[in-house]
Amino acid sequence: MTFLALSTSVHRYESSGIHTGMWLGEFTHFYDALTGAGHEVTLASVDGGAVPIDPVSLKTPVIQMGGTNKRYEDPEFMALLDDTPAIGEVNLAAFDGIYLIGGHGTMFDFPTEPVARAVAHFADAGKIVSAVCHGPCGLLGVPLASGETLLHGRRATGYSWTEEKLANRTDEVPFSLEDKLRAEAGEYTKAKVPMTKHVVVDGKLITCQNPMSATGVGEAVVELLRA
């Protein structure tokens, strides 16, 4: 099976200019879970080209990364981030599902038409749609062929406002993802303790709350691919 992973292309916050981007561990842990089970993962980004990495994701302690991030020191692996295809140029039919990688950059370019079109393609085809942390920004307002939006009546999770406060990013982000998910989804849940693993599986929709959940979403995807 071949899975499509999607990254943000945004490398700075609009308000301050502080660097942001993809949260690297949320890609590496998912990648390891799927490739370890014999599946392939192709990385794309919203605009194409080099993928920006949130520098905080390289400094966060191991316990918050969700595991040791040895991939950053692997040149062959990191080359995957050097020149990615733009999501609008990807042959979506070639993939068995999509994974929306988190990172604060997603809050600016995931709630856009090219991402919504890609996500809808997989949902309408009955394929797996998965997202972690801020990745669910790409699930907001996605229109389906049925006339409903993707999250209507569905169970979901995503980065909580409490976690946003802990990350000291409440003044940088354009909205509260928790509030958006509560308004759109049938049910939003979160871990009792912030920054701990929380994975929600609703059919072929898999959402996870934070970086500590990245391996969990990979494991959940592997289970669905076995079905």
How would you describe what is shown here?
There is one protein chain. With 227 residues, the chain is α/β, with parallel strands linked by helices. The chain has one domain (2-226): Rossmann fold, CATH 3.40.50. It contains 9 helices and 8 strands. The protein has helices spanning 24-36, 56-59, 62-65, 75-78, 106-109, 113-124, 161-166, 177-184, 214-226; strands at residues 2-7, 40-45, 97-100, 128-132, 155-156, 187-188, 199-202, 205-208. A 6-stranded mixed beta sheet has the order 2-1-3-4-8-7. A two-stranded parallel ribbon has the order 5-6. β7 and β8 form a beta hairpin. The longest helix is centred in the N-terminal third of the chain and has 13 residues, at 24-36. This is Chaperone protein HchA. Belongs to the peptidase C56 family. HSP31-like subfamily.
Task: From the structure above, extract its key features.
Rossmann fold; 9 helices; stress response; 8 strands; globular; 6-stranded mixed sheet; alpha/beta; 227 residues
Short summary:
The chain has helices at residues 24-36, 56-59, 62-65, 75-78, 106-109, 113-124, 161-166, 177-184, 214-226; strands spanning 2-7, 40-45, 97-100, 128-132, 155-156, 187-188, 199-202, 205-208.
